[in-house]
Design brief:
Shape of chain B: globular
Structural class of chain B: alpha+beta
Order of helices and strands of chain A: HHHHHEEEEEEEEHHHHHH
CATH class of the largest domain in chain A: Mainly Alpha
Distance between the termini of chain A: 56 Å
Helix content of chain B: 40-55%
Largest sheet of chain B: 4 strands, mixed
Oligomer: heterodimer
Strand order of the largest sheet of chain B: 1-4-5-8
Number of domains of chain A: 3
Number of strands of chain B: 10
Distance between the termini of chain B: 31 Å
CATH topology of the largest domain in chain B: Butyryl-CoA Dehydrogenase, subunit A, domain 3
Helix content of chain A: 40-55%
Largest interface: A-B, 44 and 42 residues
Number of strands of chain A: 8
Number of helices of chain B: 11
Number of domains of chain B: 3
Radius of gyration of chain A: 23 Å
Number of helices of chain A: 11
Strand content of chain A: 5-15%
Structural class of chain A: alpha+beta
CATH architecture of the largest domain in chain A: Up-down Bundle
Strand order of the largest sheet of chain A: 1-4-5-8
Largest sheet of chain A: 4 strands, mixed
Chain lengths: ~400, ~350
């Protein structure tokens, strides 16, 4: 089918959906389920699983038409791990039954997902993780501790990587599971951050029972499955066009303009340098998007997050200095549970502290530099001492 | 307003291919290094090839005036390659800056510059930022008096374009009779000269010339960023190649994280410089209202980045990088001179402060 035919087909299906389920009078959940069944949830997914097998770009057509008709959305921010990470992985590795069971309630938001990957002893070295899963009949018994888990306190399921064979080298003894967060062995504790709030959780897993039917991929194949999840995470970061002075630089530039009495020469050149770097980062993103659109997708995107983290940290630090005595204040230390990071809704002290995490979360800047050096520039990897040794024999 | 295109067209890539192939043959690093010992023989033959054989002198000149009617986007690609080879040709000073001064003049001189028959330079210090140009030469009955120091492209030029302010406003005069004294320069591949006008005969070529002069310097600044990107790109890639071969402590040196991280950061910076330079070239080509910001951003960023790239390249090469024999010093000298050329990064940031409403 040609591109135009696909657009027409999508438009026709949207019209049919709206005719059969008037958003004004239909229950929200009922509408979302009907939308999924019509293949209009994520059109690049296959038919039968909320899609039509069309190019991903056509989703914009669907979303725009449905929004214009006043249709409800599935609150994508409320289930960003489910939509962004769990769903593509389930699609890639799930059995037919698993796709049927999990994808629809995931998309409609009836079931919220979280990610059980990082551990206190396995951050950058994720493949070294220690949470154990031991086979018992048709089930697996899981014990261990996970950390930095967004949404765990609201989640119904978690994508989980656990060690099923400690006798294998670390990458080979892992298996990927879909973990029921309502199991009595799952305990979720808020993890308070330096900002005072808790965006994340610690998750303690004690004799959690997971049926083998909730294993995703083969036993021992967990690293490969997890890599799929992590790659979709990188695709999700940093692709949208930003206007000039979008983001942190806009906040600081406005503070400068609003406070002529606080301006000092040494901060002026620093601000201008960061303004230039922010503008160049914006142009670099624009060039990258143009390359992607032209099919010249390269590995350059790996640097986007490096730059983003550095600029956020430098700018938020500058902002406090600029505010001088006001910079001694902090808006709110209370232990709250925000649903998402809110850089502009909070004050300067919060921005300064929260941005420290930008060079740690989603791949530390140090690991990203390794990736750029090895995969983009072709430099050799550091010698590895842990690659072919059974996991249980590694020093810890 | 549609977004400016930051990629290269096929035509631009073809142009790059022919410039690169010519420079590979005729601009070896030892010929450039020889300029520091007084042997400038590479300049004439190389410039004849670039201007004549490839016909690049007239890139920015409309076809009706004897040029090829291309745009700043193509000129930027040429400058990227000239930067990669630290090529000692007066393309920037004659085919970009001097040519842009004359673009609206429809003069015979413009045709001669376009064909490569003559070469010109704007007689202002190379360090002049676009909005800070101040004429220092006086005109008196068609005769010029005064001195201008540290002019780039003057040694290669047959004719100098001289801005003069009088009661009638700005006028640009052309003269071939100035006294040009070469200065021993930090960058001998773009050697500067002191220029003296002792009552020499000159002809007015552009009247009401303030905008023409500023426009020319802004075009120069916008496109110098592409040369700086070319310099940085050579430094990065040469250093990566070297660190993939060099062994110490029984290991490929490029496998040490301390070095890999520096190269990863330099890669991020070089890609950013490419975007900034490309945006400035595209804005210039489209005569976009954002050009003043685009040029100031590109100069502020690429000027510093090229210096950083050359300094990192030297350091990461270790001892060999400190030798006369290895070409990295040619790039360091060019990068540092380019950083000062057409306004230091600090001067461009000062201009930006006005342009984007971030006053001191």
């Amino acid at each position: 089918m040609s591109g135009t035919d696909a657009v027409e087909d999508v438009r026709r299906r949207v019209a049919e959906l709206l005719a059969a389920h008037d958003p004004a009078t239909t229950d929200r959940l009922e509408f979302l389920r009907a939308r999924y069944d019509a293949g209009l949830a994520w059109v690049h997914f296959p038919p039968g699983h909320g899609g039509l097998g069309y190019p991903r770009e056509l989703q914009e057509v669907v979303d725009a038409e449905l929004a214009a008709a006043g249709a409800p959305d599935n609150d994508p921010q409320g289930n960003f791990i489910g939509l962004g990470m769990a769903a593509p992985t389930i699609l890639a590795y799930g059995t037919e039954e698993q796709k049927k069971r999990y994808l629809r309630p995931l998309w409609t938001g009836e079931e919220i997902w979280c990610q059980l990957f990082s551990e206190p002893g396995a951050g950058s070295d994720l493949a070294g993780l220690a949470t154990r899963a031991v086979r018992e009949g048709d089930d697996w018994i899981v014990n261990g501790q996970k950390v930095w888990t967004s949404s765990a306190h609201r989640a119904d399921f978690g994508i989980l990587v656990a060690r099923t064979d400690p006798d294998q080298p670390k990458h080979r003894g892992l298996t990927y599971f879909l973990c029921d967060m309502h199991d009595p062995g799952v305990e979720v504790r808020a993890l308070r951050q330096i900002t005072g709030e808790a965006e994340f959780n610690e998750v303690f897993l004690t004799d959690v029972r997971i049926p083998d039917s909730q294993r995703l991929g083969e036993v021992g194949e967990g690293w490969r499955v997890a890599t799929t999840t992590l790659n979709t995470e990188r695709v999700a970061i940093g692709g949208t066009p930003t206007p000039r002075e979008g983001g942190m630089i806009g906040v600081v530039a406005q503070t400068w303009r609003d406070n002529p009495e606080r301006r000092r020469p040494e901060l002026h050149d620093e601000l201008l340098q960061l303004w230039v770097e922010s503008e160049v980062a914006r142009l670099t993103g624009m060039r990258l998007r143009q390359k992607l659109a032209a099919g010249q997708a390269g590995p350059e995107g790996a640097t986007t997050k490096l730059t983003f983290a550095r600029l956020n940290q430098a700018l938020s630090g500058l902002e406090l200095e600029l505010l001088e005595d006001e910079g001694l204040c902090y808006d709110d230390w209370s232990f709250v549970r925000p649903e998402r990071v809110n850089f502009t809704g909070r004050e300067a002290g919060y921005r300064y502290l929260r941005s420290k995490g930008n060079s740690i979360e989603g791949g530390t800047s140090e690991i990203l530099r390794n990736i750029v050096a090895e995969r983009v520039l072709g430099l050799p990897a550091e010698p590895r001492t842990d690659k072919d040794i059974p996991w249980k024999e590694l020093p810890r | 307003m549609s977004e400016l295109d930051l990629l290269y067209t096929e035509v631009e890539e073809d142009l790059r291919g022919s410039v690169r192939s010519l420079l590979t043959d005729r601009c070896p690093p030892d010929a450039v290094a020889a300029m520091y010992d007084g042997d400038r023989s590479v300049v004439d033959t190389l410039w004849r090839a670039v201007a004549g054989e490839l016909g690049l002198a007239g890139l920015l000149v409309p076809e009706a005036q004897g040029g090829s009617g291309a745009s700043a986007r193509e000129a930027a690609v040429v400058l990227e390659e000239l930067g990669r080879f630290v090529a000692p040709v007066p393309f920037l000073t004659s085919s970009v800056i001097a040519t842009t001064v004359l673009l609206d003049s429809d003069s015979e001189l413009l045709r001669q510059l376009a064909s490569g028959e003559r070469t010109a330079a704007l007689a202002v210090p190379f360090s002049t930022a676009p909005d800070t140009v101040v004429p220092v030469v006086r005109a008196d009955g068609g005769r010029l008096h005064g001195e201008v120091g540290k002019v780039a492209g003057a040694i290669e030029a047959d004719v100098l374009l001289v801005p003069v302010v009088s009661d009638d406003g700005w006028t640009v005069y052309a003269t071939s009779e100035a006294t040009v004294t070469p200065v021993t320069s930090l960058d001998m591949s773009r050697q500067v000269a002191d220029v003296r006008f002792d009552g020499v005969a000159a002809e007015p070529v552009v009247t009401d010339a303030l905008q023409a002069v500023r426009r020319a310097l802004r075009a120069g600044a916008a496109l110098l960023a592409s040369e700086q990107y070319g310099v940085a790109s050579w430094c990065l890639h040469t250093t990566v190649e070297y660190l993939r071969q060099r062994r110490q402590f029984g290991r490929i040196v490029g496998s040490f994280q301390a070095l890999k991280h520096r190269l990863a950061d330099l890669y991020a910076g070089t890609e950013s410089a490419a975007a900034a330079a490309r945006y400035a070239a595209a804005a210039l080509a489209a005569d976009d209202p954002d050009l003043p910001v685009a040029a100031a951003v590109a100069q502020s960023y690429c000027g510093d980045l090229a210096v950083r790239a050359a300094e990192e390249a030297l350091q990461l090469h270790g001892g060999i990088g400190m030798t006369w024999e290895h070409p990295v010093h040619l790039y360091l000298k060019r990068a540092k001179a380019d950083q000062i050329g057409l306004g230091t990064p600090g001067r461009h940031r000062a201009a930006l402060a006005e342009l984007v409403d971030l006053p001191a």
